[in-house]
Amino acid sequence: MNFKLTTWKGGLGLLSLLFVAPTAVAHSWVEQLMVIAPNGTFVGSPGYSRGNVLRSDPGYSDTKMQYLVPDGRNEVLPSDLLCKNTQQQQVQSEGSPRLQASAGAAIALRYQENGHVTQPGNQLGKPENRGTVYVYGTTEPKEGEKIMDVHKVWNKKGTGGDKRGVLLATRNFDDGRCYQVNGDKISTQRQSEFPHTADQLMGVNLWCQSDIALPSNALSGKPYTLYWVWDWPTLPNVDPNLPKGKQEIYTTCIDVDVVASAGTQSHVAASYVQDQSLNSAAIPAQLADIFGSGAPPSSVHGGSMASSNPGPAVPISSEAVTKTSRAWSSPTVAVTPTSPVRDPIAPQKGVTVTTFITVTKSVFPESFASASPQ
Questions:
Q1: pLDDT in tens, 124-161
Q2: Tens digit of pLDDT for each residue in 251-301?
């Protein structure tokens, strides 16, 4: 993929990577994880996958992070591994620490669309939602994990396969907002509908995300493993070169440090803040999907998806949310939409989501960023 370095004028003198004539041959992986505050804003310090290689690292290339299953074949075999060879063990690279989050926390797994969303015509026979992302979780990962032992085997109840893990969420690869800047119709429409200020991380592009919740009973002091699996098949009888279609799956293997939350808890309602900076905002419909039918999943190894009904929401002001941003713990009860939530692949502008959250003192350290919109 060709690119040029562009200097953006402004107080910070940010540098951005402006991709020119993208060919959508670069594929995607989880570049960064963030904790999501109850008002829908990313807070705290970012986390990264096992064996992460930052784009700023010397010798960086896409091949050091992307992992394709199957590689060189059209069908997955029982011997195919779930994790890239550099992600088989629970080891972090220097400068790419694990995300730290409390049990039940909502978190965003962020990735680049690399033209797969905004230039869908570059690949024949691909699904309209640009494929489906499956996020699995376990406290019992193993080296040499086979993809066929996990993918479409582990389920939400934790009763699938060897019962070591659970399906936390499924998401469209296209989150309805993200884009790579190019001259094609989808990109130009989204640039207009979802503008953002270019920053040093994303440049002029807007990254995609898979928003999920950690299990509410995940044990503090022990890593919780996430398997991000992007299933992006070629459908049969569309591409003349692939009359039987093709399986094409990309994965990222991630560990999250589950940290304890302390203090007296009480239920408070808070609204998703509208018109906040999209540089650090979750997807409203995905948050509604996480908590809309009850509490975050209570399963660690598997087990049931806990549900509770705390009663009607009483939204508080965004000012109140801002003042107490450092005291938020993870959402642990419910999210209920106050206006209809559109399909996850549709634009999300104008959606209001009300969340029930738990307030606790000393959950986030003082170094965590404010949850107020930027």
A1: 999 999 999 999 999 999 999 999 999 999 999 999 99
A2: 999 999 999 874 333 333 357 898 899 999 999 999 888 877 433 444 444
Determine the average pLDDT of the residues in 41-57. 95
Q: In 3D, which of 114, 214, 123, 220 has the Cα closest to residue 174?
A: 114
What radius of gyration do the chain's Cα atoms show?
20
Asked if residues 186 and 117 have their Cβ atoms less than 8 Å apart, the reply is: yes
Mean pLDDT of all residues in the chain?
77
d(CA 278, CA 276): 6
Largest Cα span, the chain: 62
Cα(178)–Cα(180) distance, integer angstroms: 7
In whole angstroms, give the CA distance from residue 149 to residue 127.
24
Read off the pTM. Answer: 0.75
Instruction: Kindly tell me the number of DSSP H helices and DSSP E strands found in the chain.
Output: 4, 15
Return the domain boundaries, the chain: 30-291
DSSP character at residue 146:
B
Output the DSSP codes for 67-111: -EESSSSSS--TT-BSS-GGGSSS-PPTT-PPEEE-TT-EEEEEE
Per DSSP (E only), the strands in the chain are 3-7, 15-19, 32-36, 42-47, 68-69, 99-101, 106-111, 132-138, 165-172, 208-213, 223-231, 249-258, 266-271, 335-337, 353-359
pLDDT at 338 over 80: no
- Provide the pairing of β-strand 99-101 with 249-258: parallel
Residue 92 in this model has a pLDDT that exceeds 80: yes
CA count, 13 A, side-chain hemisphere, 267: 15
pLDDT cut 70: percent of the chain above it: 68
List all residues 6 or more positions away from 161 whose beta carbon is below 8 Å from its beta carbon.
149, 150, 153, 154
Phi, psi of 310 (to 5 degrees): -80, 0
Which tokens belong to 33?
Answer: 């994880």
pLDDT in tens, 106-134: 999 999 999 999 999 898 999 999 999 99
